[in-house]
Amino acid sequence: MRLYGPSALERAMKIQEVILRAMSGQLKWTQAADILGISPRSLRRWKRRYELDGYDGLLDRRRGKPSPRRAPMAEVEKVLRLYRERYQGFNVRHFHGIARREHAVSLSYSFVKKALQEAGLVKKRRKRGRHRKRRERRALFGEMLHLDGSRHRWLARKAEQYQTMITELTGLDVSNASLYDGASALAEAALMSVRANRKVKSGHVLLAPGVNPLYDKVAESITGGQGLTFEWLPRDSATGNLDFDKLPEGTNPVAVVMQQPTFAGTLEDVDRLTDWAHAQGAFAIGIANPTSLAVLKAPGHWGAEGVDIACGEGQPLGVPLSSGGPYFGYMTCKQKHVRQMPGRIVGRTVDLDGNPGFTLTLQAREQHIRRTKATSNICTNQGLMVTAATIYMALLGHEGIARVARQSHANTVRLVDGLCAIDGIERLYDGPYLHEVALRFDRPVGPMLERLAAQGILAGYDLTEYAGTDALLVCATETKSDADIDRCIAAIAGAMNG
């Protein structure tokens, strides 16, 4: 006969009372489970036992039964005897293996270890302290207490740091410390929009017709395996820009990408397009030539709220080209999306002595912290190129960069006016431009470019594949003199007449 103490009987009576109240409708079964401190599933099990056996079914059936976890004392004594007499000083893991293999011991490693510790034959390991200690918040955003922070004053004035200058150009809050190039920066921006724009699960990205088609190819190649799809928005044949009258509805895009100036050199109505993107619940991603931002509206001010992410190619910021490169990509975003931003972010910090320095911050985003949850696995920066761009921007300042942009525009106007005076050449698209213009030719431009290249003249970029007609994208930067421009015009006129 099993004997039950007062506590067991009291618990059984309480369970019975609660079950009866629930069965009579006085309580909901979820409420009854909460009163007893058990799960609804356990309560259903008690109810079935009560229906089958009545009050006796509510008593603990394990009473008087030996514990299934209890080991035979003879085997425990055997283990202790073996350790004392033959294996004194052995590592517990090594001893357990020998005992199972050579002495037919069936006890688990954890049980053997506990038995040896309780018998005083093996010392208990000291518990480890806390892995991390909570750190007091720093006075400024991005600050962290690091002993390895650099004390070097990179530039004469404190404000002249790369991230600061890029955010000032783009009109957004946060910048990373560069990516590979403009094309991969777009791919990263698209992936970032998927992570940050959690309301939209489509993975569908819309591209304005002015986006560089080469950027699209790179982005599709990088993100294709992650389920992103890219679709071009309709083009206005007269302006080369977006045809707002044919915008699709109900596509549920996660992001809308726009470029200013466009691939063909035109100026897009980015304000209207940004507002449309936000009205669709999509992120607005702006691609911009950083030099143009000294005279054009910054992406952070496009539309009513500005773009969510801005990216592009940083090479125009004083990085000389050599054999097809080098390049570097820039990326900025709104403050609320900073934890989804890929790439390095450098924060201002102080060491234990109070000396200022700089160090990588918010590194939980990075692949070397949590690879499976990393924001990017191709986030290596172009540090040398960024340093060159930083020096360039620091030397020129905002006004200097604006003068570069205005001089480039003036040179391009001179070049375009001279070329359009030649028979067989006209502008491909109407509307304003900055420093690049697409021109239509009445003959193939490929052979002409080859003849001009032999004269040391890089006349432009062949747009025929993208424009659907014989076309050339021409550009004149601030580095070109009037004599250079006149020589180019004369050479193209000679090639057209020849």
Quick recap:
With 498 residues, the protein is α/β, with parallel strands linked by helices. The chain contains 14 helices and 13 strands.
Structural class from helices and strands? alpha/beta
- Report mean pLDDT, rounded to a whole number: 86
**Coarse morphology:** elongated
Classify the fold: give the CATH topology of the largest domain. Aspartate Aminotransferase, domain 2
What is the topology?
Blueprint: H1 6-23, H2 29-36, H3 40-53, H4 73-85, H5 92-102, H6 109-118, H7 162-170, E1 174-175, H8 182-196, E2 204-207, H9 213-223, E3 229-232, E4 255-260, H10 270-279, E5 283-288, E6 309-313, E7 329-333, E8 346-350, E9 356-360, H11 383-420, E10 425-427, E11 436-441, H12 446-454, E12 461-462, H13 464-467, E13 471-475, H14 482-497
Parallel strand pairs: 2-3, 2-4, 4-5, 5-6
Antiparallel strand pairs: 1-7, 6-7, 8-9, 10-11, 11-13, 12-13
Helix pairs in contact: 1-2, 8-9, 11-14
Descriptive account of the structure:
- The chain is α/β, with parallel strands linked by helices.
- It folds into four domains: 53 residues; 46 residues; 230 residues, Type I PLP-dependent aspartate aminotransferase-like (Major domain) (Aspartate Aminotransferase, domain 2, 3-Layer(aba) Sandwich); 100 residues, Aspartate Aminotransferase, domain 1 (Alpha-Beta Complex).
- 37% of the residues lie in helices and 12% in strands.
- The chain has 14 helices and 13 strands.
- The strands form three sheets. It has a seven-stranded mixed β-sheet with strand order 1-7-6-5-4-2-3, with helices on both faces.
- α9 links the parallel β2 and β3.
- α1 runs antiparallel to α2 and α11 crosses α14.
- The longest helix is centred in the last third of the chain and has 38 residues.
- It is elongated, with a radius of gyration of 36 Å.
- The N and C termini lie far apart (118 Å).
- About 3% of the residues have low confidence.
